[in-house]
Amino acid sequence: MSTTIDFIEYVCDQIAGVGEIRYRKMFGEYMVYVNDKPILLVCDNTVFVKILPCLDETMREADKEFPYDGAKKHYVLDIDNAEFSKKVIAILEPVTPIPKPKKKKGK
C-alpha cells in the first residue's frame, strides 16, 4: 500500500509552522522537505526519520523499522503528536544539508 495524498497533507498540517514545507512524490511514496531540506520520509502512511546521533535521546522510545526494501532502519515518528514532531524537526533541520542539484545528463 502506498501513501495516500490525504495522509501526506495531514503530515504537512501537523508540522505547520516549522518552516517552508513541501513534499515530493518519489517511487510512489513521499519525501517531506522543510526549508528545502529532506527531513521526513513517508512510506505506507508511516512517517520515518533518519537515525542520527542528535536524535538518540529524543527518539529513544521510538520504534525502528525499514521504510522500504533495501533501506536502512529509520525511526518511526508519531506524527499524531504534533508538538513532538515539531521538536524532532527542530533538531533535524539545522543538521540536514540542502541536497546538491543533480547535473543534467549529456552535459
List the helices and strands and how they pair.
Blueprint: H1 5-14, E1 21-26, E2 29-34, E3 37-43, E4 46-50, E5 64-65, E6 74-77, H2 82-92
What do you see in this structure?
A 6-stranded antiparallel β-sheet has the order 1-2-3-4-6-5, with helices on one face. The chain is an alpha+beta fold. A hairpin with a 2-residue loop joins strand 1 and strand 2 (29-34). The protein has helices at 5-14, 82-92; strands at residues 21-26, 29-34, 37-43, 46-50, 64-65, 74-77. The longest helix has 11 residues, at 82-92. It has one domain (5-95): Alpha-Beta Complex (Aspartate Aminotransferase, domain 1), CATH 3.90.1150. The mean pLDDT is 93.
Distance between the termini: 38 Å
Main β-sheet, spatial strand arrangement: 1-2-3-4-6-5
Briefly note the CATH topology name.
Aspartate Aminotransferase, domain 1
Q: How many E-type strands?
A: 6
Q: How many H/I helical runs?
A: 2
Helix content: 10-25%
Task: State which percent range the strand residues make up.
Answer: 25-35%
Order of helices and strands: HEEEEEEH
What is the overall shape? Answer: globular
Structural class: alpha+beta
CATH class call = Alpha Beta
Mean pLDDT: 93
Q: How big is the Rg?
A: 14 Å
**What's the number of structural domains?**
1
CATH architect. name: Alpha-Beta Complex
Low-confidence parts: none
Largest sheet, described in full?
A: 6 strands, antiparallel
Brief synopsis:
The chain is of the alpha+beta class. The protein has two helices and six strands.
Keywords:
107 residues, alpha+beta, Aspartate Aminotransferase, domain 1, 2 helices, 6 strands, 20% helix
